[in-house]
Amino acid sequence: MTGTADADRAPETPTPRPGTDRTPPTPRPGTDRTPSTPTPCSGPSVWKGRELTRPEEWRLRLSEARLAEIDSALREARRRDRTLLRLTAADFPLPGLAADLARLSGVLEHGRGFAIVRGIPVERLGESAASTVFWGIGRHLGHPVPQNADGLVLGHVRDTGRSLDDPAARGYQTREALPFHTDPTDLLAVLPLSAPRTGGRVSLVSSAAVHNAVLDLRPDLAGRLYRTYHFDRRDEHAPGEPPCTSAPLVSRPGGLAGAPSMRYNRCYLESAQRFPEVPRLEPADRELFDLIDSVAASPEYRLDLDLRVGDLLLINTHRVMHARSAFEDHRPPGHARHLLRLWLAFPRGAGSQDAPPWVTLRDVIRPRATAAPRATNSRRYPA
């Protein structure tokens, strides 16, 4: 089984909806998406971490039968001898687990928006086989899409010594704390292969609950949730393309009665200000960002996860923001926090129907014309 595939094409991803193109236009701030009177959200996507006291409701623990299925699927994938980029759900058959994953998809798309599959035996499998298993399960949930302009589709999250003070660095390359944010995809999947010495805690928060808190605590700022802002692309763009993308923080694709779809990354909102063509943030904008950060990080709203090695974490990034605490790795090198990451687009006809146009990954990050799709960045950072 080949673990890298530089010459292969990336898996098919959903095409942009009519009326969208690869580079979104730059609307005038505050004029195009703000509802006349923002209203609170309701439904299962609205939750507070303090109220979620039954972990078994969001965890699927793999049984011996399901683990045997995974081993069988891995053998079948090796028998078919496909490169990772060409491996489809059909090449990784999971008859029983696929039904479990379909039920989880309903929770991800229409429920609380996150789930954990516990017990993937990554230590027994080793990194290469664990990567294949991770990819194979991911293909049952959606379409892998590029995570950077070099065409990366299977990412390795670990400290590479970079800092977010570098405008070309991204959070997954650092060991710094990452405040609550969303990734620009439908579904985020991560699988820890090894743990740090200290720190690295993952926390989640309901975007709809944060939205409602803003309406309740600062109704004067509520309209700004729906205004257009500019996000730094952190040098993940081709020559001639704009260095930022524009989007509202909140969209309500189903109308004011629908669940909100949120996009938020304060680091990228702030660093976009380095470009003179980007409109300046107003004091009230930063008041809004401060409030979002404060509510999301509060013990009442956030849910701190007990995420273990071998836990597959799935997050609907329309509905849930995530954060990570700073961490310290073991010494000597080679014993470090290491997670695999996939960005997945919902299959056509599923959650993507509820997504606003900006969520299409090719509107935010897509390979440069000279970049061949790549399965992994592991060769950059040897284990």
UniProtKB/TrEMBL annotation:
Low complexity composition bias: residue spans: 32-45
The cofactor required is:
Fe(2+)
Cross-referenced InterPro entries, in alphabetical order? AlphaKG_dependent_hydroxylases, TauD-like_sf, TauD/TfdA-like
Where does the signal peptide begin and end?
A: none
* Chain residue ranges for the region called Disordered: 1-50
Q: Name one GO molecular function term.
A: dioxygenase activity
The source's superkingdom equals: Bacteria
Biased composition (Basic and acidic residues) is annotated at 1-11
Q: Which UniProt keywords apply?
A: Antibiotic biosynthesis, Dioxygenase, Iron, Oxidoreductase
Pfam families recorded for this chain?
TauD
**Protein's UniProt keywords contain Iron:** yes
Q: Where is the TauD/TfdA-like domain?
A: 88-343
* GO BP field: antibiotic biosynthetic process
Q: Does the keyword ATP-binding apply?
A: no
Query: What is this protein's name?
Result: TauD/TfdA family dioxygenase
Organism of this sequence = Streptomyces triticiradicis
